[in-house]
Specification:
The complex is a heterodimer of chains A (about 525) and B (about 325). By secondary structure, chain A is mainly α. Chain A contains 16 helices and no strands. Chain A has one domain: Cytochrome C Oxidase, Chain A, CATH 1.20.210.10. Chain B contains nine helices and no strands. The radius of gyration of chain B is 24 Å and the shape is globular. Classes of the chains: A mainly alpha (about 525), B mainly alpha (about 325). Chains A and B meet through helix 1, helix 4, helix 5, helix 6 and helix 7 of A and helix 1, helix 3, helix 5 and helix 8 of B.
Amino acid sequence: MGDHGPAQGFGRWLFTTNHKDIGSMYLWFSFAMFLMGGVFALVIRAELFQPGLQLVEPEFFNQMTTMHGLVMVFGAVMPAFVGLANWLIPMMVGAPDMALPRMNNWSFWILPFAFALLTSTLFMEGGGPNFGWTFYAPLSTTYAPPSVTYFIFAVHIMGASSIMGSINIIATILNMRAPGMTLMKMPLFVWTWLITAYLLIAVMPVLAGCVTMMLMDIHFGTSFFNAAGGGDPVLFQHVFWFFGHPEVYIMILPAFGIVSAIIPTFARKPLFGYASMVYATASIAFLSFIVWAHHMFTVGMPIAGELFFMYATMLIAVPTGVKVFNWITTMFRGSMTFETPMLFSIAFVILFTIGGFSGLMLAIAPADFQYHDTYFVVAHFHYVLVPGAIFSIFAAVYYWLPKWCGNMYDERLGKAHFWLSFIGLNVTFFPMHFVGLAGMPRRIPDYALQFADFNQIASMGAFLFGFSQVFFLFIVIKTIRGGKQATEEVWENPEGLEWTIPSPAPYHTFTTPPAIK
Amino acid sequence: MSSETHMTDSNDAYEPYYVPEQSAFPILASISLFFLIFGLGSFFNELTADEAGSGRYIAIVGFLGLVSVLFFWFRQAIMENRQGMNSLQLKRSYVWGMGWFIFSEVMFFFAFFGALFYVRNFAGPWLGGEGDKGQFMHLLWEGYKYTWPVLETPDQVVEGAKAVFVGADSSMYPKDAHNGLLFWLPMWNTIILLSSSVTVHFAHVGLKNDNRKQFKGWLLLTVLLAIVFLFLQVAEYYEAYAHYGLTLKSGIYGTTFFMLTGFHGFHVFLGMTMLLIMLLRAQKGHFTHDDCFGFESASWYWHFVDVVWVCLFFFVYII
């Protein structure tokens, strides 16, 4: 193995075993899915611009809400984090590549096929999945369109991709660290990904079991989710949310790692409370397994269950609070500057906290009976996912892009992208709290007149946010094609091994392990 | 984990980590997988709609493609190791990989066991009218009494002869399932599978002691026991369908029974295939006492399959 560069032509991407190539493919794929899921969202927001039915049939509206959720969760957010993991973890721990490079490429190449199949269901007879991204039975079994079978298999192979990707990440972190890189010296991004990968391996098989039960109920006459045979539709919700709740932390833990890398750099202070960050992440991961039924407070659970899941859920606020206070304390009396990655990170801390607080409101079982299935829930999870997961990904791209391509992005354009996104998302999602509390149900293409004003505001915000992301694409391409040459360190005294190698990072890094202080 | 490659400062002794150059396996495997699932999806839809179609052929093409790709992929990985390209560190990567893969399999079974526990402890009794959650069930399923195993489904109680889900005549518990085979088949299967975990361990001991005859002999016996297990499992399914009226469609009891034992049986088949391949490799002279990851990982998988069966035996057949 020498210092040779990448292979030529398209074969480079098809056959690659290089973690940087694979990371780039994950990130580009994720961005394509982000735009596609975004278009689905804009169809929803366009329809909801006015009360009444204007643009699409209710049936198609349902397909849009479903596909928007599925594509954003499985196609945009998760692959983006896996892409970042691929690019960064080997460089951060001083490894020559991922532990199992060929399997790494397989994990990626499954995804385009899975999403091609999933998206093609929109053009099938009977339409695509129309039962919400949570695909509750019996909507997804007894009353589902025939395309649900393809949806099930697409989920199966997405799960296989995630499991293989996670195995690779865990093996890399546990086995490939440079000598001297002890666990408690690892960057937090590596720590959060280690725990995320563990969560993925624990719950993706449960999702596979869940869709397998659906498949059997639909085609082979079993009665997991059918009370007529002695089963229970609510069983579906338990199995699904046993996967689903850890899944939402899968989408946020790597984000915690990213902002924990960025805030110290631009506050010019070491991260406050490194060890407590690690323990808080592990606690959140543990708690994620025992809170799932807070998604189902209104479904009819015994009072003991309501209480258990309510209190367990509230406990999550403790480790999450530790994290938020650590970030704030890191910034306290720091020599702060506000480059684009820092702006996204600060917005992350503030807006994610808002999403966390609305989560606490939803955790209160009696109050949840009012909020359940309203736009308040939509506001809540978009506040944790958009300024949470998505903003952290933007922050990561601005922070590490100079390392990846060797050029600095244009700071003015980056800041413009930040403010457009920041304003767009708040205009979109903040009014949803109000219409939700007033009782507007989610996943319905029409609404009462009283909700019209806030919905119009939200729709305008959504289009602003959406078009800002095309601008982001422009900024990234412009940076890749040229710009001010980035230095090795890129930023002022950033911490981590990735800043000790040239920019752009050579095709192969750390073929012999670096010395760790 | 051995610590011989853990150095503190000097990197002089670093053994390079083999990063394969380029490989066509991943993309070919992805294409095959796509054909397989697209074909299966179409096939299942055609089956349910009772239409003729090409789904099954697409699935077969995909399946054969996937099997061939995996064959050559594993072949290459084995050859790389035999050519000495794998450092100790790389070998540990494979160990971690297999360990976490088995953990993912554990969680897959966890979903199905969870479904069984939920139905038996919560959903079933509520459906029968027990407690707060059951107080209005009589409006939907009047006259339904919950018992486990569910031999009369709510559907039958309400719809009578028109019911879609028709419960079994008798269960697979020992009091009901005395069949012609000696005494009670699952108990024999338990004995067989537990024994096979012991025999595969003896094979491992033989390999560690460089006793190839012992290694191959016990490994062969393990594979034979696996085949006997699968044969008895098929016999049990035949009995269930032919004489007990227990099918996939006989309500939640048939559902949980066949899905749990069926997925376990499928994993036994996979484990047996792995062990068989290891036997063929042993025959070709592969494996030494200090380099036998392929065999060891197959035997870990086999122990996992065994543990799942013990849980199954306890929760599906005994209590």
